[in-house]
Amino acid sequence: MSHPISAPNALRPSRFRPSRRAFLGAAAAAGLLALPGCATMGGRYSIEDAIRRMMELSADRAFANLLRPGGFWDNQLVRLDLPAQFGRRGGVAQAILGSPAMRARLQRSFNDMAHDAARNAAPAVADAVRHIGIRNAVALVHGDPTGATAYLRQDMGGHLIEVMVPAFGQALRIADDPLIGEALALLTGVDIGGVADSLAREADDAIWGEIGRQEAAIRADPRSSNNSLIERVFGGGGR
Question: How large is the average pLDDT for residues 100-119?
Fold first, then answer.
C-alpha cells in the first residue's frame, strides 16, 4: 500500500468525456443555477456546490468511521498492514514476528497510531474540499462512483502523507508498547522516519478508500444525504 499517490487515468479531469446522455442530464440540472437560496456564490446554487457538499459529507462520514475507537483495526478494508521494513529482515521476522499473536499485537499498535494520524489529516481534507477548483463538473457528476474522491486526491497530491508522517514519528518515539521499541531496535539501518513514512502511506490509502466508499454510497442513495441540492444533482434525471 506504499505506492505513490496517483488517481486512476480514467478518472483524471482531462480525460473525462461525458456522453450525450450526460450532457442532456446537465441541461436538466442547469436549472439549479437559478434556484434561490442561502448557498454561497451570490445566493445561487451550482453543480460545483453539490459536488463540494457531497465530498464534505463523504469525508465527514469517512473520518467519523476511522476516528471511532478501533476505527482502523476493526475494519479490514482500512486496516494497516505491517510496514514493509518488517518483512525485509529475517532476524526481525524470527525474533519479533515469529508468532501470529506477536504480529497481531504489533500491527494493532500501528493501527492505533493511525487513529491519531488520521485526526491530523481530517482538517486538511476539509480545507481542500472548501477550496478545490472543480473543472468539468458535469463529468464528475456523471462519472465514476468514486470520481470526485479521485479528483480531490489528485488535487491534494501527497499532502496527507506529509501531514501524517510527523504524527506517526512522534507516536513511534513515545510508544508505551515495549514490543515496538524492540522491533525498531532490531531494524538495523532503518530509521523511525522511514517506518513513519510507510505507515503514513498506508493510512493515506485507507483514508481515501473510505472517503471513496462513502461517496459511492451517497451517489447510490442521494436521499440518504438529507441535502436537497445533492438529491437534485445526483438523484435527478441526468444519470
Answer: 89
Q: For the segment 59-70, what is each residue's pLDDT rounded down to a tens digit? A: 999 999 999 999
CA dist 57 and 40 (Å) reads 17
Question: How confident is the model at residue 36, as a pLDDT?
Answer: 30
Q: Where in the sequence is the domain holding 189, given as residue range(s)?
A: 20-234
166 within some domain: yes
6 domain-assigned: no
* Residue entry with cell 494493532: 108
Rounded to an integer, what distance in angstroms lies between the CA atom of residue 115 and that of residue 71?
7
Backbone angles phi, psi at 216, to 5 degrees: -60, -40
Residue 10 belongs to some domain of the structure: no
Report how far residue 51's alpha carbon sits from residue 238's, in angstroms, rounded to the nearest whole number.
14
Mean pLDDT, rounded, for 21-48: 42
Cα dist. 25→68, 73, 239 in Å? Answer: 38, 41, 7
In a domain, 200, yes or no: yes
